[in-house]
Hints:
mainly beta, 5-stranded parallel beta sheet, 7% helix
Amino acid sequence: MKFKNNLNDPSNRLWSWNPNNTNCCHWYGVLCHNLTSHLLQLHLHTSDSAFYHDAYHYRFYHRFDEEAYRRWSFGGEISPCLADLKHLNYLDLSANYFLGEGMSIPSFLGTMTSLTHLNLSYTGFNGKIPPQIGNLSNLVYLDLSYDVANGTVPSQIGNLSELRYLDLSYNYFEGMAIPSFLCVMTSLTHLDLSYTAFMGKIPSQIGNLSNLVYLGLGSYDFEPLLAENVEWVSSMWKLEYLYLSNANLSKAFHWLHTLQSLPSLTHLYLSECTLPHYNEPSLLNFSSLQTLDLSGTSYSPAISFFPKWIFKLKKLVSLQLGGNDIQGSIPGGIRNLTLLQNLDLSVNSIASSIPDCLYGLHRLKFLDLEGNNLHGTISDALGNLTSLVELDLSYNQLEGTIPTSLGNLTSLVELDLSYNQLEGIIPTSLGNLTSLVELDLSYNQLEGTIPTSLGNLTSLVELDLSANQLEGTIPNSLGNLTSLVKLQLSRNQLEGTIPTSLGNLTSLVRLDLSYNQLEGTIPTSLANLCLLMEIDFSYLKLNQQVNELLEILAPCISHGLTALAVQSSRLSGNLTDHIGAFKNIDTLLFSNDSIGGALPRSFGKLSSLTYLDLSINKFSGNPFESLRSLSKMSSLQIDGNNFQGVVKEDDLANLTSLMEFHASGNNFTLKVGPKWLPNFQLSYLDVTSWQLGPNFPSWIQSQNQLQHFGLSNTGILDSIPTWFWEALSQ
């Protein structure tokens, strides 16, 4: 109970830890000995699934998920009373947020000598690893990965003679070489030092770790580890996983022959490595290799073709060759890799049609051909790859229609055909893909209506049909997609009204219906979309009062909304104090509407505002009375209105982030002293039709980042000073 009292438990996961429940062996996360009832294990890991609906939520919306993570994970302080659990052998506190940044791993953990398993990964600690950890002589498993340590690795870690598993990955030991004491810990079977900012050469003594099954030495691209050779790996007969991403192997001329001699090597990751001059091997015997990642590798000199030796790897399950500038066509030899489940050839320069040999790889689950120069049509035979889970053909030059046979791929989770030249209708058969989480058909030339069958895709998290030639109405069936986080239908020819059924999409974070022929008013049902962060209703025919729109959004949506764009959509009326409820808004775009009146004082509450565009409206009054406190604003566009008044030094003093100032076509007078220097640096300035004169404004000399300026019709009678022309020539 003392341990619990020092913790923050916002989700009340430890509700069972209470004095009335006297048998602690029944408490959450606790495991006891069957006979003695001694407390042996404490499992307080926070699972990703607790705060992400799935990986796609994390992928698209980090900010939202971080908040959810904090609401679910444990925080606070780890009490020293934990050391009183003398029989505890298993402690997992991973994926929580203890104490906050700048606090080190507690040194008292070094007194818990019964521990055999200690996992502190991703716990929010950030300091030196306490040397007392070296006292845990029974430790078999130690995970200190993901931003829990920096500085140096204490040599006392080398005392852990029973240690089998050591993970120090994703920490920052800047300026430190891989410690030599790690190279004598011969009991290790798992060692991960990836992305730790270790510098220099990979020590050949690491080859002493002959019991290793997993070795991770991936490094950052700005500070790659150097291996003059890889002969040290020859003694690692048990090695199954070798992770050397970003390593500089340019002098390891015999790397391929050395690695292929390892009888147990199953997974080889060499992504972003620098490899020596390429020689096609005459004899190759990678008898066990199942995973090969050569994505983003560079040869000296460069090669632009498929290494033929790869086609001899008959047991290969995963092949990643993305980002290698491979040219020409996909060789027919790939048909030999009949066990392939993952094929990534993305971001190359492959210029051919999709070859028939790919359609024979019936075990494929992941096929990524994104970012090439593929042309021709998508064959109906693609529908035979019924094991596919992810299919990405985006950013190519594919044409023709989407084959209806894609409806056979009922295991698909992700389908991305965006940025091609596909035409015709969206096949109704796509409604069969009920496991689909992401569907992206954007930036094609698709026609016809949005099929109602897409409403069957109830697992969908992202739907992007933007930048096509779709017409007709938005089907009511899209309201069935209650898991949807991102809905983008912009840049089509959709018409009619926005369906009220979209109010059912309560998981929605991004909604973009812009650049369509939609008309009418925003349905009040959208007030249910409390998680919305980004809304774009620009270039529609809304004919709605702006205050009506804000009244719909304010009660529930306002607290999380970061971007609202309703440009050229026929909004009218006056802004009201409802605008002050949108306290987290970063981007607010209301240009080219018919909004009038003065800006309400509540505008000053929008402390996160960075981009504001109110241009070409009917606003009046002096806006700086409301905007003067917005210190984060970098772009202010208020040109083409009926604003008026005197702008003084104090009105601009807090606008320290301002970089773009569009304010022409109003009736302002700038009244500042002759020695006034703004607190901002502008790259864009247009104050056409302001009263600045009669003297040429000397403060412009301080704006040394200016790339565009407009000063016409500003009452300046002075001659233009020479410093102005000198600034122009720079």
